[in-house]
Amino acid sequence: MSLDSHIPSGPMAMKWSKHKQDSKLINPKNKRKFTVLVVGSGLAGSSAAATLSELGYKVKCFCFQDSARRAHSIAAQGGINAAKNYQNDGDSVHRLFYDTVKGGDFRARESNVHRLAEVSVNIIDQCVAQGVPFAREYGGMLANRSFGGAQVSRTFYARGQTGQQLLLGAYSALNKEIAAGGVQMYPRTEMLDVVTVDGHAKGIITRNLVTGKIESHAGDAVLLCTGGYGNVFYLSTNAMGCNVTATWRAHKKGAYFANPCYTQIHPTCIPVSGDYQSKLTLMSESLRNDGRIWVPKKAADIGKPPAQIPESDRDYFLERKYPSFGNLAPRDISSRTAKEVCDEGRGVGPGGRGVYLDFAEAIGQFGQKTIAERYGNLFAMYEKITGEDGYKQPMRIYPAVHYTMGGLWVDYNLMSNLPGLHVLGEANFSDHGANRLGASALMQGLADGYFVIPTTIANYLVHQKPGSVTAEHPEFKKALEVCTAQTKGFLNSKGKRSVDSFHRELGLLVWDKCGMARDRAGLTEALKRIPELREEFRTNVVVPGSGEACNPELEKAGRVADFMEFAELLCLDALNREESCGGHFRTEHQYPDGEAKRDDENFSYAAAWGYTGDFAKPTLNKEPLTFEEVHLAVRSYK
Amino acid sequence: MSAVFDSFSRFYASSIGKKILVALTGLMLIGFVFGHLVGNLLIFAGQDAINEYGHLLQTALHGGGVWIARVGLLAAVLIHVVATVSLTKQNNAARPDKYGQHKAQVSSKSSHTMILSGLTILAFVVYHLLHYTVRIGNSFNSDAYKIDLHGEKVHNVYKMVIDGFSWAPASLFYLIAMALLSSHLSHGFSSLFQTLGISTDKSEPVFKKAGYAFAGLIFAGNAAIVLSIWLFGYGR
Amino acid sequence: MSQLNLHLKVWRQNAGQPGHFQDIEAPEIPDHASFLEMMDIVNERLISKGQEPVAFDHDCREGICGMCSMQINGVPHGPEKATTTCQLHMRKFRTGDTIWVEPFRAKAFPVIKDLVVDRGAFDRIQQAGGFISVRTGAPQDANALPIGKVVADAAMDAAACIGCGACVAACKNASAMLFVSAKAGQLNVLPQGQPEKDRRTLGMVRQMDKEGFGNCTNQYECEAACPKEISVRWITKLNRDYAVAAVKEALGNTPKVAGGGD
Q: Which residues of A touch C162 (CB under 8 A)?
């Protein structure tokens, strides 16, 4: 099947304006006859639900957390980019667009990225009007900082909790609409399946996580705003509840899953301390501005207290390999190099998976007070988690999975190939290509929810008869039965192993074979192991408790079952993509200096995988990527 | 009119509204407690001084002044008590299932016992009024307690107080009540500034210290009267 | 890394039924584990013994989502200052300790299961006015309204609230004043929040009362328990804002009575 991305014609800078002009309008009287189901209440979900309700649509919004405010967007620390050029440092929509395409290693769709850069400025206006307390200067103007190596200061921030503040803004807009009666909110409700009628997404099946009741909800369109799949690795910086279930079940109903192998690793996380570890904690990358990263030169020294290792026996490997960028080398390069030195047996800390981030020199130069002013909260967090004092001894860091660029394939209207099914935010694949720049995730979530979908959804709805499908339709009954049977299946399984033990095993396998660096042999092995593990899960998992009440083990079982299936597609995609780009690094494809080697001739496409019923043999649909504005070039950070 | 009344009833029905009334009436009662102490300390200035003061209170505004004060105080006490009892009931209802373990980290014992200290003080006030104002169960209304002052026959407050505190059980009860009153004030004094929306980070510690000082003063002053008579035989 | 042997007293309850404390032995707990990871280990062992694991709320495990709760040894989020349960680590305990683990208790937070409570009341309070009514697409340029750094920082202080409910759990009256005051205060202090200030204040306070929370008795246990160290000065401000709004409502020309709790 050919993929039509519905990119508007005309010059890049005019595409979105033109598309808005050409988009259909729906009569206000008719809008309230349409019901839109929004799954997820993070930045994309809350903002979309609130804005669609403002426009007059009837909205039902679902989240598995106990409140919409707790969606994982809340955990973003750094900031949000916008091409405001408040600093007069030469920023512009075009420059943000350019940086994002280049940062994505030329694997994103140009037109989407340009639109993202255009609406970025409106996001800031919107958030300020809602009362989001961005950092300000004494004169009362908004403050900006440079982030993630950008050459302009375009990042807006709210202390170390920009994600929480933006989400609270969107959540307040959502609350306004709930109070006005336009949005019906379903917290502690997890989506189990998409229901399709005549090939269109017309509803969802949910499980009430308090009563256990499995229910049908019919609508005229479905919006998945359900985040990324980073927890396929078990250990990640994602929240414990983040899962692939919504997007994976949609995929199994026909939606294409695009570029799952694009996963982003964040270099400055606190390392794993033992096998009980449940999640990884990210520390701001800004630490690399003053900290020096090193490991012992000799593997024999890894057990020694760092203070006893003389300068001559230390290997400042980033400074050595990348002299001009040094400790500020890009995320993927820093991460990979850390992995390499650990693979050589020179990693420090429990399990040998860690490198030192040393502030001794900076403290010597600027004094502890200055360092504490800059990073005090991060040192405190590190101390809380590890019990070690980063001022007295080097911190230990290790990369961890942080964000996933892949997701369900969508066209310019954010609609998947399954008519009616729209996908927003991290859940879709569209804007970040193979690598996401810092402070761009929040921008994309809010752009999709506040400004894109409210316009583009009409292009689908205008062709629909509102309320044409109700939850009484036989397709709902069928889907409901499948979900009920699956739930019963978990509860009746008479196995021995807990859900978590499977999740942990799967995560280790995927991290090992399809993590920071991948190769054919490892991926092939993973593709052999995953089905075996899945089979063991099916027969040997144990899920205590009942299906008719709050049962966290049952919730996890459903999510892990989907990760077990999805992991195979992730590895297949990584195996198929015989090149290195952004967050996807194949050790076979690198320049002699270790730089990622793209293959633009053969792989300048988005890989959109279709479900066939056989996990090992999905169909591959290619959306060719063309670059009119930004010229293909090799990244170099030497 | 009814709009205003509705608003008032909504104000009283709300958590903050009730608390503001408690704070305002508390402020009135604090003023009263202070004035009352200052007046009573006149006992140390001799018989005539306190009798003159007592007579002045009785005859101000042709005898109306004392009634205005009494009605005002009664209203303040009523509002203070009714509102706090109602708040306490709501507070108890707000946590029907108690904790197995519940640790207070920063709050004082006094703040946890406001309703107990308050109700005991209320009982004490009733006793105190019967004792020295209505004078039931004693002979303080008899002619033995009339005295000539500047040619006028007035009530001999001095003798009444001396005789009253010569009886140990009464003195003991007064002391206990004053201790509870000062405990009540130690939280209530600074608390009212918070409820009225006045406290700031800078002023709060000042209000706290002032509250402790005031509570100490009220206890020390009143206890001095009781103890000097009961134990040290002042005026006997 | 050393290991701890602990005795847990964990509250077990199904919705609508009476609950009880269950004694659970938790030997060999790594002191590097977080409190929630300790609970994970305990649950893993319960599952292997064929028993039902302890249900508890958690999600981000980095102290920002506000999902985790638990009254630990009588204190919300445990003994460590300015720390959520997920960021509390076992090295703060000693081997041999008995640890009481209970749900946040309040009439307005009914128990769903074991340590999981329903904090939907917080959402409903915010729906009663915790927002600025601005339509998407309507606003002016963000820098058209200068906001002094002092005011912006104050709003940020209040906005740091993660809505976990520790303030309610710590208060002897199960009062929600710290939460409500932080949420109302963030918007009431900003210029954008002025047009709806009175309406917001009245609406949120009335909804708070309606939900069955207790009253503030100025003991500041909430502030001591708050993982984000929200100041009780926000309560001072809410008291003041409420008094002003109520007087204006009674005497002024407010066209319509604020909603919430009606």
A: 164
**DSSP state string for C34-76:** BHHHHHHHHHHHHHHTTPPPPP---SSSSSSS-----EETTEE
**Shortest CA distance to C196 belongs to which of A176, A123, A185?**
A176
pLDDT digits (tens, 9 = 90+) for C31-49: 999 999 999 999 999 999 9
CB-based contact, A68 to chain C, within 8 Å: yes
For the domain bounded by A22-261+403-461, which CATH number is listed? 3.50.50.60
A532: tokens are 């075996």
Q: List the one residue out of A233, A258, A204 whose CA is nearest residue A40.
A: A204
Q: How far is CA B44 from the centre of its chain?
A: 21
The ipTM of this complex is: 0.96
What are A200's strand-pairing partners?
Answer: A197
Q: How far apart are CA A70 and CA B97, in angstroms?
A: 27
Which residue type sits at A92? S
Q: Which CATH number fits domain A482-624: 1.20.58.100, 2.70.70.10, 1.10.1040.10, 3.40.30.10?
A: 1.20.58.100
Residue B64 contacts by C-beta under 8 Å, 6 or more apart in sequence?
Answer: none
Reported CATH class of domain A265-400:
alpha beta
Q: Which amino acid is at A184?
A: Q
Report the C-alpha gap between A56 and C48 in whole angstroms: 52
pLDDT tens digits for range B135-180: 998 999 999 999 999 889 999 999 999 999 999 999 999 999 999 9
For chain B positions 52-81, those within 8 Å of chain C (CB to CB) are: none
B106-135 residues touching C, CB cutoff 8 A: 106-108, 111-112, 114
Contact A368, A357 (CB under 8 A): no
What's the CA gap between A581 and A572, in Å, rounded?
16
Task: For chain B, state the CA radius of gyration.
Answer: 20
In this predicted structure, what is the pLDDT of residue A1? 55
- Within its chain, how far is the Cα of A113 from the centroid? 16
Do C196 and C99 share a domain, yes or no?
no
What pTM was computed for the model? 0.96
Instruction: Give the residue from A334, A456, A346, A454 showing the smallest Cα distance to A402.
Output: A334
Count Cβ–Cβ pairs < 8 Å, chain A vs chain C: 224
A350–C52 C-beta distance less than 8 A: no
CA-angle at A424, arms to A572 and A632, nearest 5°: 60
Q: How confident is the model at residue C256 (pLDDT cuts 50, 70, 90)?
A: low
Q: How many CA atoms lie within 13 A of A5 on its CB side?
A: 24
Tokens of C221: 């246990």
Pairing of strands A421-423, A221-224: parallel
Tokens of A506: 């799967």
Distance of CA C47 to the CA centre of its chain: 30
- Contact at CB, C206 and B14, closer than 8 angstroms: yes
Helical ranges in chain B per DSSP H? 2-13, 15-40, 47-59, 65-93, 109-112, 114-128, 157-164, 168-195, 203-230
Q: How far apart are alpha carbons A72 and A227 in whole angstroms? A: 8
**Which residue matches tokens 């019990």?**
A387
A265-400 matches A22-261+403-461 in CATH topology: no
Specify the DSSP element, H or E, that contains A447.
none
- Determine the angle formed by the axes of helices C197-210 and B15-40, rounding to 10 degrees: 90
Closest C-alpha to B20, from A606, A480, C238:
C238
DSSP code for A352 = G
Quote the pLDDT of residue A636: 65
Q: Which residue in C15, C142, C159 is closest to A128 by CB distance?
A: C142
Quickly tell me which residue has 């010059």 as its tokens: A11
- Record: contact C239-B196, CB cut-off 8 A: yes
- Residue B6's pLDDT band, with cuts at 50, 70 and 90, is confident
| Mean pLDDT within C224-250 | 96
Domain end point (choices C90, C113, C136):
C113
